[in-house]
Amino acid sequence: MHNEQNDFESVDIEEFYDKDELNDEFSTNLVVLTDKERVLVNLMFDKLKSISPETLEVFANRMADLERLTRNIAHFPSLFQQQKYSAELRTEKTLVESLLAQRGSDRILHLPTKAILGKGFLVAKFQAFISMMKIAVECRFSKDETAEFQKASINLMFTLMAEDVYLSLLDNTSIPVDLRQQVAYSLIVLWEHRSDQNVADMAPVLESVWMARRKLAPVFGTMVGTSELLLLSIEMDDQWCKFISSKLSDPEVSMAMEEFLFGLSYEDIQRLKQILRDKGISAIGRDEVSKFLNKEPEYDQQNNKDPRQFYLLYSVRRDNAKARLRMNLPGPHSTLEDHYMRFILEKNKEKQYNDVYAKQTGSVSVW
Questions:
Q1: How many contiguous H segments (helices) and E segments (strands) does the chain have?
Q2: DSSP 3-state of 7
Q3: Range 105-109 average pLDDT
Q4: Do 263 and 252 contact (CB within 8 A), yes or no?
Q5: Cα(197)–Cα(210) distance, integer angstroms
Q6: What is the pTM of this model?
Q7: Distance (Å, rounded) from C-alpha 66 to C-alpha 155?
Q8: Which of 100-104, 161-165, 310-314 has the lowest mean pLDDT?
Q9: What share of the chain is helix, strand, coil (3-state, %, to 5)?
Q10: Upper half-sphere CA count for residue 199 (Cβ side, 13 Å)
Q11: What distance in Å separates the CA atoms of residue 178 and residue 315, rounded to the nearest whole number?
Q12: pLDDT surpassing 80 at residue 60
């Protein structure tokens, strides 16, 4: 690895890695940088070389730290690798069985070390890309370049969030066991690669809904959000529209959707509805909500583009849902993200079944 940080002669990220190790990703399946992320890192090196050599040195050190962390994780065996400890045989199958058997906080001490360390790697990588996003803004990169750094940061945030969603789905015993097994396998793949195809399906849609909900400035009248949903769904992809049409009639999903759209807890939504009824007010603006509830909003209305803001509100909704479930209280017991990921997994399973059936019968599978 190139250790001289002060000459800035190369902007290629390969300077930080041995080429043989790049080929096998440090003898593990961990995805250090995707092709798109590598392009962005090289762009940042190239820009900072002329704009701010001091910042470049700090950034180079950050990437070197990320590389060292990856090397340490590489020492731990693949989660798909069969291992024998004394009389105990550990396989991918036994890991799935363990994930299905454990619950909530009890699971943390049973997780593979690679899974724990891998999350630390992903957080470090996310923070590195958040820093790049800030640098792009401060150093006046082009609008398109800045948007690409933001997009990369958002994708990493959703990958972090996917682990929480998978774990929540594993805890939901109302989900059929075969689907929970699929969730467990998806989680293992995420731990192994720190990359997830389901995130690619989920992230763009939820990001679009999140951004659109702020632009719409919905009126808090009936608090049902029907008009907002119709507007949001117009430009969404087919999968989101199918989710809306098939699942929104479920009260659990509609309550989770309200929390997501309005940025309020179920309890605050009920309070606000009652206040509006008592005062005979038909509608209020989003900015008036905190005044009526006599509390500060849990979201930063001026910082809507920061991916950490999305994750913060998701975490609040997730923890509230778990508390309601544990105490058997009214309101959503799962987040919108949980419901949407479950929908994606169900549709993927349905498509796989149809594809197998099509091969057996010679017919064409259409979804």
A1: 15, 2
A2: coil
A3: 77
A4: no
A5: 20
A6: 0.84
A7: 18
A8: 100-104
A9: 70, 0, 30
A10: 22
A11: 27
A12: yes
